[in-house]
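Hypothesis: this fold can be encoded by more than one sequence.
Test: take the structure tokens below, design a sequence, compare later.
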């Protein structure tokens, strides 16, 4: 029977070693830190801003803020939680700036915040083109429906469903009660299911569409055959 483990958390130890290197001026260590958290933090920023470019800008600003603030990091919470809070605040600051800009510049009567393009990565050369195109189309649909969620639900959903944070971690990251995390996540999933089901119902209605051109072609072909018999 093995004795109980005491003491250290390997991931926390590795994190502490990485922070020590960063504080000593090792920029390659900070690059390693960014690569470790890039996906989570980008997704969180995008959940607030609903725009790829704006999310990247907010993430860059957040990293610069974090780098300057790292000497004061005291490990009361995990580094990931601390970084996520900084990214959320940076994203909110970017959104407020965009709103102020929209008040000054008229965009043909359309709100700048209503535009959220979602460019997709080109399919990998090794993948089957049709399968890659279908996957990209599905991803765009899901991203659009996530973008359509109210912000408070959207960020909780991204952290819980995409980044797979626990209820406790999400609560700690966003500073909201665990019960609120559970209710918002449950509601977000319900709204997404409803939105996607609606899209699927519409797709079923259009499946094997017998449009005007096809109808005309069949009628003309049959009439041509009939005329040839007379």
């Amino acid at each position: 029977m093995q004795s109980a483990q005491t003491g250290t958390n390997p991931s926390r130890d590795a994190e502490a070693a990485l922070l020590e290197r960063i504080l000593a001026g090792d920029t390659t260590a900070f690059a390693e830190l960014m690569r470790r958290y890039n996906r989570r933090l980008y997704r969180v920023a995008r959940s607030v801003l609903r725009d790829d470019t704006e999310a990247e800008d907010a993430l860059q600003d957040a990293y610069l803020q974090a780098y300057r603030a790292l000497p004061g990091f005291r490990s009361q919470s995990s580094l990931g939680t601390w970084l996520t809070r900084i990214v959320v605040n940076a994203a909110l600051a970017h959104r407020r700036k965009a709103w102020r800009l929209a008040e000054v510049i008229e965009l043909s009567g359309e709100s700048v915040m209503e535009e959220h393009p979602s460019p997709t990565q080109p399919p990998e050369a090794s993948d089957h083109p049709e399968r890659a195109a279908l996957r990209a189309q599905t991803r765009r649909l899901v991203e659009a429906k996530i973008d359509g969620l109210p912000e408070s639900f959207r960020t909780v959903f991204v952290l819980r469903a995409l980044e797979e944070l626990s209820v406790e971690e999400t609560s700690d990251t966003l500073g909201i009660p665990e019960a609120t995390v559970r209710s918002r996540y449950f509601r977000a999933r319900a709204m997404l299911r409803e939105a996607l089901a609606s899209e699927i119902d519409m797709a079923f209605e259009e499946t094997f569409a017998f449009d005007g051109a096809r109808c005309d072609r069949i009628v003309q072909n049959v009439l041509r055959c009939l005329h040839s018999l007379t």
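The chain has two domains: 9-117, 148-230. The chain has a mean pLDDT of 78.
Hypothesis status: open.
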